[in-house]
Amino acid sequence: MIERKIQSSKGTIYYWTNEIVPPQEFAIVFCHGLTADHTLFDKQVEHLSAEYKLITWDFPLHGKSRPYKDFSFANVNEEMLTILEQENIEKIVLVGQSAGGYIAQSFIHEYGDKVIGFIGIGTTPYDKCYYKKSELFWIKHYSTIARLYPFSYYCKAGAKAITVTDEARTSMYKTLVSLGKKDMLKAVSAVYGEFLKIDDEVQFNCPVLITYGEYDNTGYVKKYCNNWAEKTGYPLKIISNSSHNANYDNYEEFNGLLVSFVQSII
């Protein structure tokens, strides 16, 4: 993967991509979760980079894409659009893990004509009808609660809570430590603040696949995903032997689902 960047008035955004010969008309774009970075998808890059055009990125306030001012989902959408223009990509399959699924859904809401498929990993729907006010309360105050914990403890406990395998846990722990407490709190406040503003349901004009890990006990992810699939009829796959970072915990099973999904579209 080749490291590249774009520059806007709000900050520098870093992304990684590969060269495919002959060039492909579409790319698979991966959106990592809150406080993670592009390395969350290392196992997908290893498996798919020889066959598909891939783009991973550190979306604003994460990884190398710091500092960044005026964070909003709309501004993040503009950054993603600029990346696609720089790479001459017209159509994409979006893969969003956790809060990266909110980024993906926001992009689909605004630029749905560019998206030919969406896979959610432990993410939940935009539409507020799925959420109780008491559940949204904890999202609103998450950064306040997180601030109370010593950061070393937060990193260890946080990485352990969302992974099953040692490899996935070590990767997530390193990412959290690298982010630092100040930027972790900033990212959490910004992303959840934007999520709480959402009112519109996303209209998907493309195939959708909802997935979550068998042992994902993060918030109410399982309940939301099950309700999402039941309401919409979108297919739901539960990834065995995995937690919230299911695509890393059980990357072999997830990679198989991803390839089958992409091949059913193109």
Automatic annotation (TrEMBL):
Gene Ontology terms, MF aspect: hydrolase activity
**Domain called AB hydrolase-1: residue spans:** 27-123
Going by the UniProt record, its keywords in alphabetical order are: Hydrolase
Looking at the keywords, is RNA-binding present?
Answer: no
Q: Does the keyword Hydrolase apply?
A: yes
GO CC terms on record? membrane
Give the protein's recorded name: Alpha/beta hydrolase
The UniProt entry, under Pfam families, shows:
Abhydrolase_1
**What organism does the record attribute this protein to?**
Bacillus aquiflavi
SUPFAM superfamilies reported for this sequence: alpha/beta-Hydrolases
- Top-rank taxon, per record: Bacteria
